[in-house]
């Protein structure tokens, strides 16, 4: 199983190169909603995990936030950096290549909020996700917000394709980790759960949880 999970990095790298606008240029609905919450909360500096091709990254920057984006694809980081330059947003966007299974390369309490769209449902084991959640908590300021989206076990693809351990299934070369409400609770250690909302996205449609947490 570990080899299959590790191979996802090169698969995403190849996909981003072949499909430079795979997810389109418009921001996701969770990003738009998160930006409204961030504005009400007085958020300034945001950490985005798994920013991909940058549609949400650039939206946050354009809305006036300073954003640090991480992705483990070199091509994605290079593309977002160039898009930010073209949009005159370079002062608001920093993109860095990083594997989030390793410690986050930031000091404690460096960010007001952390955001990720579909990063938590990538090919990551539960223990790796627990480590990541603890790292996010470390780099958030007191009372900082942590918002993430994941596909859940009510999704049409759950239980189909190649089983890759735990609640992970591979379809069309992509491994997805599907979440139950219990898993959301397990990963909320050290946080207060502000909301677990349901959302549909895309053509299947994909069925998501939007999880909103506050650091305790």
From TrEMBL:
Residues 46-144 form the Methyltransferase domain. GO terms for biological process: methylation. The keyword Metal-binding does not apply. One of its GO terms (molecular function) is methyltransferase activity. Keywords: Methyltransferase, Transferase. SUPFAM superfamilies: S-adenosyl-L-methionine-dependent methyltransferases. It comes from the Bacteria. InterPro entries: Methyltransf_25, SAM-dependent_MTases_sf. This is Class I SAM-dependent methyltransferase.
């Amino acid at each position: 199983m570990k080899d299959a999970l590790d191979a996802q990095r090169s698969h995403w790298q190849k996909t981003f190169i072949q499909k430079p606008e795979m997810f389109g240029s418009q921001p996701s609905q969770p990003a738009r909603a998160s930006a409204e919450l961030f504005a009400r909360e007085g958020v300034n500096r945001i950490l985005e995990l798994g920013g991909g091709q940058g549609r949400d990254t650039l939206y946050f920057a354009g809305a006036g936030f300073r954003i640090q984006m991480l992705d483990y694809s070199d091509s994605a980081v290079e593309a977002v950096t160039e898009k930010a330059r073209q949009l005159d947003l370079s002062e608001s966007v920093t993109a860095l290549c990083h594997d989030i299974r390793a410690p986050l390369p930031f000091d404690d309490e460096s960010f007001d909020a952390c955001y990720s769209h579909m990063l938590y449902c990538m090919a990551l084991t539960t223990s790796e996700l627990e480590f990541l959640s603890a790292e996010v908590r470390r780099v958030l300021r007191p009372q900082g917000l942590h918002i993430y989206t994941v596909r859940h076990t009510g999704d049409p693809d759950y239980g189909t394709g190649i089983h890759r351990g735990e609640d992970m299934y591979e379809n069309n070369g992509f491994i997805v980790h599907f979440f139950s409400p219990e898993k959301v609770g397990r990963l909320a250690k050290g946080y207060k759960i502000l909301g677990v909302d349901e959302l549909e996205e895309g053509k299947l449609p994909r069925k998501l949880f939007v999880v909103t947490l506050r650091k305790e």
